[in-house]
Amino acid sequence: MDNREEARTEDSEHLFRGYVVWLILNGRTEDALGLLAKHYGVSIPRLKVGLPSRHKTKASGCYAPKDCTIYLRNSDTLMDPFVILHEFYHHMHISIDKKHRGTEKYADRFANGFLRAYRSLTSTVSKNPAKAA
Ligand SMILES: [Zn+2]
After folding, report:
1. N or C end of the chain, less CB within 10 A?
2. pTM for the full predicted model
3. Total of domains in the chain
4. CATH of the domain at 99
Protein backbone atom coordinates (compact mmCIF):
# COMPACT_ATOMS: atom_id res chain seq x y z
CA MET A 1 0.00 0.00 0.00
CA ASP A 2 1.56 3.37 -0.95
CA ASN A 3 1.12 6.50 1.11
CA ARG A 4 -1.69 7.92 -0.94
CA GLU A 5 -3.74 4.77 -0.58
CA GLU A 6 -3.15 4.75 3.14
CA ALA A 7 -4.36 8.33 3.44
CA ARG A 8 -7.54 7.43 1.60
CA THR A 9 -8.19 4.47 3.90
CA GLU A 10 -7.72 6.71 6.92
CA ASP A 11 -10.06 9.23 5.39
CA SER A 12 -12.87 6.75 4.88
CA GLU A 13 -12.35 5.40 8.41
CA HIS A 14 -12.68 8.96 9.69
CA LEU A 15 -15.90 9.51 7.76
CA PHE A 16 -17.24 6.14 8.88
CA ARG A 17 -16.68 7.08 12.52
CA GLY A 18 -18.28 10.47 12.10
CA TYR A 19 -21.26 8.93 10.32
CA VAL A 20 -21.81 6.33 13.06
CA VAL A 21 -21.88 9.08 15.71
CA TRP A 22 -24.25 11.14 13.58
CA LEU A 23 -26.63 8.17 13.22
CA ILE A 24 -26.72 7.65 16.99
CA LEU A 25 -27.28 11.35 17.70
CA ASN A 26 -30.19 11.20 15.30
CA GLY A 27 -31.81 8.25 17.01
CA ARG A 28 -30.77 5.74 14.35
CA THR A 29 -28.86 3.64 16.84
CA GLU A 30 -29.95 0.32 15.30
CA ASP A 31 -28.57 1.44 11.93
CA ALA A 32 -25.33 2.52 13.61
CA LEU A 33 -24.95 -0.87 15.32
CA GLY A 34 -25.63 -2.62 12.02
CA LEU A 35 -22.86 -0.65 10.34
CA LEU A 36 -20.45 -1.21 13.22
CA ALA A 37 -21.10 -4.95 13.25
CA LYS A 38 -20.49 -5.17 9.52
CA HIS A 39 -17.38 -2.99 9.72
CA TYR A 40 -15.78 -5.08 12.46
CA GLY A 41 -17.12 -8.43 11.28
CA VAL A 42 -19.11 -9.28 14.41
CA SER A 43 -22.80 -9.98 15.08
CA ILE A 44 -25.22 -7.13 15.72
CA PRO A 45 -25.76 -6.73 19.47
CA ARG A 46 -29.30 -6.52 20.79
CA LEU A 47 -30.39 -3.27 22.36
CA LYS A 48 -32.69 -2.85 25.35
CA VAL A 49 -33.81 0.18 27.27
CA GLY A 50 -33.76 -0.47 31.04
CA LEU A 51 -30.87 -1.92 33.02
CA PRO A 52 -31.17 -5.49 34.30
CA SER A 53 -32.38 -5.38 37.91
CA ARG A 54 -29.17 -6.90 39.28
CA HIS A 55 -27.36 -3.76 38.17
CA LYS A 56 -27.46 -1.19 40.90
CA THR A 57 -24.79 0.97 39.37
CA LYS A 58 -25.13 4.55 38.21
CA ALA A 59 -23.94 3.46 34.79
CA SER A 60 -25.72 4.72 31.71
CA GLY A 61 -25.33 1.37 30.06
CA CYS A 62 -23.91 -2.11 30.37
CA TYR A 63 -23.22 -5.06 28.13
CA ALA A 64 -24.37 -8.58 28.91
CA PRO A 65 -22.31 -11.15 26.98
CA LYS A 66 -24.74 -13.96 27.85
CA ASP A 67 -27.49 -12.55 25.64
CA CYS A 68 -25.29 -10.26 23.49
CA THR A 69 -27.34 -7.31 24.66
CA ILE A 70 -26.50 -3.71 25.33
CA TYR A 71 -28.72 -2.47 28.16
CA LEU A 72 -29.33 1.25 28.46
CA ARG A 73 -30.48 3.24 31.44
CA ASN A 74 -33.21 5.10 29.54
CA SER A 75 -34.31 6.20 26.11
CA ASP A 76 -32.07 9.29 26.21
CA THR A 77 -29.07 6.99 26.40
CA LEU A 78 -30.15 5.49 23.07
CA MET A 79 -28.90 8.69 21.49
CA ASP A 80 -25.67 8.94 23.46
CA PRO A 81 -22.86 7.89 21.13
CA PHE A 82 -20.31 7.59 23.93
CA VAL A 83 -22.37 5.01 25.82
CA ILE A 84 -23.39 3.06 22.70
CA LEU A 85 -19.84 2.90 21.35
CA HIS A 86 -18.36 2.04 24.75
CA GLU A 87 -20.78 -0.89 25.10
CA PHE A 88 -20.29 -1.93 21.49
CA TYR A 89 -16.58 -2.21 22.24
CA HIS A 90 -17.33 -4.80 24.94
CA HIS A 91 -19.55 -6.69 22.48
CA MET A 92 -16.88 -6.62 19.80
CA HIS A 93 -14.10 -7.59 22.16
CA ILE A 94 -15.97 -10.55 23.58
CA SER A 95 -17.06 -11.67 20.11
CA ILE A 96 -13.43 -11.89 19.05
CA ASP A 97 -11.90 -13.07 22.32
CA LYS A 98 -14.50 -15.24 24.09
CA LYS A 99 -13.19 -14.64 27.59
CA HIS A 100 -12.56 -10.92 27.84
CA ARG A 101 -14.81 -7.90 27.50
CA GLY A 102 -11.83 -5.61 27.22
CA THR A 103 -10.82 -2.96 29.71
CA GLU A 104 -12.89 0.10 30.54
CA LYS A 105 -9.98 2.26 29.46
CA TYR A 106 -9.95 0.81 25.96
CA ALA A 107 -13.73 0.93 25.70
CA ASP A 108 -13.58 4.65 26.53
CA ARG A 109 -10.73 5.16 24.10
CA PHE A 110 -12.66 3.39 21.35
CA ALA A 111 -15.73 5.57 21.94
CA ASN A 112 -13.68 8.74 22.14
CA GLY A 113 -11.99 7.96 18.83
CA PHE A 114 -15.41 8.06 17.18
CA LEU A 115 -16.42 11.25 18.97
CA ARG A 116 -13.18 12.92 17.95
CA ALA A 117 -13.81 12.05 14.31
CA TYR A 118 -17.33 13.42 14.56
CA ARG A 119 -16.15 16.61 16.27
CA SER A 120 -13.49 17.24 13.70
CA LEU A 121 -16.16 16.88 11.02
CA THR A 122 -18.76 19.04 12.74
CA SER A 123 -17.49 20.44 16.09
CA THR A 124 -20.98 20.48 17.63
CA VAL A 125 -21.12 17.35 19.78
CA SER A 126 -21.16 17.59 23.58
CA LYS A 127 -17.82 17.31 25.31
CA ASN A 128 -19.32 15.86 28.47
CA PRO A 129 -19.82 12.19 27.77
CA ALA A 130 -21.92 10.19 30.23
CA LYS A 131 -20.33 7.54 32.39
CA ALA A 132 -20.65 3.99 31.13
CA ALA A 133 -19.66 0.72 32.74
ZN1 LIG B 1 -17.57 -0.70 30.18
Report:
1. N
2. 0.84
3. 1
4. 3.30.2010
